[in-house]
Amino acid sequence: MGKKILILGCQHSAGIGKESGKAYSMGSFLVAMPVRSWKNDKGEGFGYGFQCNPKTDKFDFIKSDALLEKITKVHFPARLDLEMEPDPENPLVDVVVDFTVIGSMSFLDDNLVNKK
């Protein structure tokens, strides 16, 4: 059983590093995080809905042609069941190796989704 998460989108990039000259490939699923309310002796604030900081609110994935092809068929935002495994380069961190779509919440017309 994986992690059932609301995913707002996905990003992937690949190329050659400017400074290192080494090839890289990295991708992430962007996670919907609840906007938090707060209260202390100096004030209070409230929030509703979801937000995403792409630097911190994400699950990285290990790129494969099959996974990238599967991602292109998802109508984001979507609720996904993420299959996680330890990162081969850092076993203390889990990465996504596969997923199942539980449901899409996309408001986009099917003809507009994933057009290039």
> How would the global form be characterised?
globular
As a percent range, the share of helical residues equals under 10%
Task: Tell me the structural class.
Answer: mainly beta
Count the beta strands: 9
Describe the main β-sheet briefly: 5 strands, antiparallel
The Cα radius of gyration reads 17 Å
Order of helices and strands: EEEEEEEHEE
Which blocks of ≥5 consecutive residues have pLDDT under 50? none
Strand order of the largest sheet: 7-2-1-8-9
- The end-to-end distance, rounded to whole angstroms, is 34 Å
Pfam families: CTX_RstB
Protein name: RstB2 protein
InterPro entries: Vibrio_Phage_CTX_RstB
Show the helix and strand layout.
Blueprint: E1 3-16, E2 23-31, E3 33-34, E4 38-40, E5 43-45, E6 50-51, E7 58-61, H1 65-71, E8 78-87, E9 90-104
Antiparallel strand pairs: 1-2, 1-8, 2-7, 3-6, 4-5, 8-9
Give short descriptive properties of this protein.
five-stranded antiparallel beta sheet; 116 residues; 1 helix; 9 strands; globular; mainly beta
Describe the structure.
The model has no long low-confidence stretch (mean pLDDT 90). With 116 residues, the protein is mainly β. The strands form three sheets. It has a five-stranded antiparallel sheet with strand order 7-2-1-8-9, with no helix packed on it. A two-stranded antiparallel ribbon has the order 3-6. The protein has a domain at 3-32 and 59-104. The chain starts with a strand and ends in a 12-residue tail after the last strand. It is built from one helix and nine strands. The chain has one helix spanning 65-71, and strands spanning 3-16, 23-31, 33-34, 38-40, 43-45, 50-51, 58-61, 78-87, 90-104. This is RstB2 protein. It comes from Photobacterium frigidiphilum.
